[in-house]
Amino acid sequence: MGSGRVAAPQIPRLAGVTTPRAGDLLRVGPEASVQFIRPILFRVIRVLDWTTYDGWIWLEGYQLDSRGDAVARRSIFVMQAGLRTAPAPVVVGQPRRKRTPSRRATT
Q: By C-alpha distance, which of 13, 40, 10, 35 is closest to 25?
């Protein structure tokens, strides 16, 4: 009867999106590629039109920190089925101060 196998857990796919588009916010984790053992937030700039393996894609975009600020521009190679949509980061605390131009002494 039973083969002793345990069924693999079902992982939700990219919700209703077949290919990421510019502006999409993704959670890229180990389901997308083994290099992302620690998941990252990734804002897509574009999908690169490079020839690759079936089901895999190259994305260009920004890696975001927990506040939603870009910390690095990256091109990543990921399995499309492993991508997850991510909610926008919630910033708690003081808002950023506006920068004021420095005044130069005139002589």
A: 40
